Amino acid sequence: MIKAKRIKKKLTQSDLEPGLVMASNSKLIDYDFSIDLDKFLDHFKSIKQKSDYKPANSDHELSKILYDSLINSGATDAEFYDMRFWQWICLEQLYEYCIWRWNIDVNDTKPSHGAKVLGGGGVGGFSLNSISRLFIPAKILLNEPDGDILLKSFFEIQQKEQSISQSTLALNSNVFISIVKATVGLDTKQTVRALSRLNARKIGMCIDAMSSDEISKLALENI
Amino acid sequence: MAINFSFKEEADTGMELNFFGPIKGTENIGKDGTILSFKERPEASFDINFTLRITKDVLRNALPDGDVESDSFKNSIQMNLFYESVASRKRGLIKLSKVDKSSDKDFLIYSVKMPVDPILWFGDINFKAIALRTKECSEIDGFNTEKHSILGSSDEKRLYIDPFSPASGGQLDVKIGEIDDYAGVLYKLDKENLVVLLNNKSPKLVQQILSCENKSGKKAILRDALFEPIVIDITEQLAREAFRLMLANEEDGHIVSPSELNEPYKSVASDIAKQLCSDLDTEEEMNQSLMNMLQDPDDRQEIINKDLPMIVQSLSKVEKLYNSITKVILENQEISND
Asked: Fold for domain B10-160?
């Protein structure tokens, strides 16, 4: 068990030292709960040893393991939606996983790599942070009756995950669930079309007021 | 001297949403109570009370029968408070209730109370009221008759839970300083410090004119006219940087919205979105449209190479200032010819 912490002040790219390392003067705040990431780390070590394993294939399983570890830890929504908590986990606890997941060369990092440990400030901010992107979909979807199928579908195609996470509509958890339901079984092209259709219609229509079936119907019309 | 980037006001939509009553610990940082910010991040839960005033005439124009007093209106149109907080990853609707005693022949009044537990909220929350059709009605040309159609919306209000901290204040300072990059350079945008540097090696007379503090008179007119092409170029440089920031995570398919950028990039990108997409109704739609265009390599090239040089001129006062300086020069010429 590890005593949970968060970064005191949300970090930006300029707070990172070369190699995506947190600056040594960054301050941390203790929480009054602990987290157990052993199962996550064990699973990560086992798949990391497989030479032909694609990191993206681990998302669904690691998402469920992370969810189980954190949901009963005493952490609440106040931490789950606080990027400073996820920055601490990425930089202090699961740094090696973050580097492996995106095949980052720590001696040659690109500007976009910072977001993998810091997250972003915008709509897709939580989907850019390597760990919150695993946890938040699980937290929203695994409460549904067919949650595991939905979570698997969400992570099946990276483009699907990106398209859904980066739509402002997905900020509404009910709409997020409905979109994932609507896109089960769709390929990349169909998913992108479905999302484009919803994004285009949100200007004159209130998608937030729609039922899951109505969202599905609207998304899948003529795709 | 400063280069200003204006924050434009939205047109009156006939739906006016307001914070009702004070929210303890906040200060007004926007015009007319549009934006509130906590001075310190709140610890205790609080309520936000809203009132919505709708001009009946405006709403009548959005309804096929125009009757805002009918039962069909009451049963099929609902007023909602829409809220969105990107940093908190929250978005949703809360139904507004009609306040019969305050409504009159010209206006409908609605209100709602939204409880907020600050431990669950970060950054800012944006609010707007929307008039929503909750039941379909027979299709009539020119009217939104589909269920869930948005018939109208108010301007946005914003509440910063985390205290608002202005970045560069929407303007860039201009200073005289050293520019070593190339010979014969007059000015440079220092992106790190967000300052426009005027080369201290440029001719003294040019420095004197460009840095003169006069508010009116020939010198001021000459300064403004000479300076405006610099403003145009700096705006274009800021726009290119704003686009770069918007596309920083493009490989993940993530395009950053102008509204998520810091100043002055936020204002510059938003202004460009408004110019490019003036046919769209809301700032959100314009920003989204710019994001879509930048994501497409062909559209992006067209914006940068064709539209941008025109838009930055359109945003400037170059035409007006050149007119003023031309008049001054011609008047002086006539005097000397006499």
From this structure: Immunoglobulin-like (2.60.40)
